[in-house]
């Protein structure tokens, strides 16, 4: 039987980053040399051009559908409202056989209960879990992305009941590879803590 994406080490994975603003662009820069391939998806061609020019990605796609077939890990690095739409789209792509069986789907959104609830509807062929790196800047956009953004930052990981231990381990590996500190939390507990802090 073929090795499932969630069973691979990060160094063997193709990572698709959907959304190439500050968070997604910085993740692409920080992952260089740590994953097998880093590709990106963004609606604006100019954003893809900038991400390619600065070395955040190796290939760019103008849609999630165009880039997902080869992805072992899909990182949804867009605002939560768009993340929810992308989760629904990924579900359709998986049911159509476009996404790999065992593809890991994680997001970088600041709200975890809503996102994890939406992830429950994903087909069993996908491996979902919520994530939230607690870092950022006052400015946004690919032009302010930097490889050190995640250094020392808490990186919340909020697995679903169905999330495999190997998937959690891969998410931890991804967080640690960009210099972040992974912390496993229940989605509701995460949201309570974030609300208290802010």
Tell me the number of helical segments per DSSP (H or I, 4 or more residues long): 7
- The whole-number mean of residue pLDDT values reads 93
Approximate helicity band = 25-40%
Q: Note poorly predicted spans.
A: none
The class by helix and strand makeup works out as alpha/beta
Largest sheet: 8 strands, mixed
Rounded radius of gyration (Å): 15 Å
The beta-strand count equals: 8
Quaternary organisation:
single chain
What strand order characterises the main sheet? 3-2-1-4-5-6-7-8
- Overall body shape: globular
Q: Give the distance, in angstroms, between the N- and C-terminal Cα atoms.
A: 47 Å
Along the chain, the helix and strand elements come as EHEHEHEHEHEEHEH
Question: What do you see in this structure?
Answer:
- With 198 residues, the protein is α/β, with parallel strands linked by helices.
- 35% of the residues lie in helices and 20% in strands.
- The chain has helices at 22-31, 45-53, 64-67, 80-95, 113-119, 165-177, 187-197, and strands at 14-18, 37-41, 59-61, 73-76, 103-107, 126-133, 154-159, 181-184.
- Helix 1 (22-31) links the parallel strand 1 (14-18) and strand 2.
- The chain is globular, with a radius of gyration of 15 Å.
- It starts with 13 loop residues before the first strand and ends with a helix.
In short:
The protein has 198 residues and is α/β, with parallel strands linked by helices. The protein is built from seven helices and eight strands; from the N terminus they run βαβαβαβαβαββαβα. α4 runs parallel beside α5.
């Amino acid at each position: 039987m073929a090795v499932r994406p969630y069973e691979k080490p990060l160094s063997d994975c193709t990572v698709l980053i959907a959304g190439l603003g500050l968070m997604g662009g910085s993740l692409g820069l920080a992952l260089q040399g740590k994953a097998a391939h880093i590709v990106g998806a963004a609606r604006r061609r100019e954003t893809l051009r900038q991400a390619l020019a600065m070395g955040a990605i190796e290939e760019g796609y103008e849609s999630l559908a165009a880039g997902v077939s080869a992805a072992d890990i899909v990182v949804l690095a867009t605002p939560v409202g768009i993340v929810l739409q992308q989760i629904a789209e990924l579900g359709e792509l998986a049911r159509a056989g476009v996404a790999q069986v065992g593809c890991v789907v994680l997001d970088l959104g600041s709200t975890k209960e809503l996102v994890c609830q939406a992830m429950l509807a994903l087909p069993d062929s996908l491996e979902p879990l919520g994530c939230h790196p607690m870092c950022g800047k006052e400015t946004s956009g690919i032009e302010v992305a930097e490889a050190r953004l995640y250094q020392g930052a808490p990186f919340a990981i909020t697995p679903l009941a169905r999330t495999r231990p190997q998937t959690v381990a891969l998410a931890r590996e991804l967080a640690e590879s960009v210099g972040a500190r992974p912390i496993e939390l229940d989605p509701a507990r995460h949201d309570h803590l974030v609300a208290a802090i802010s």
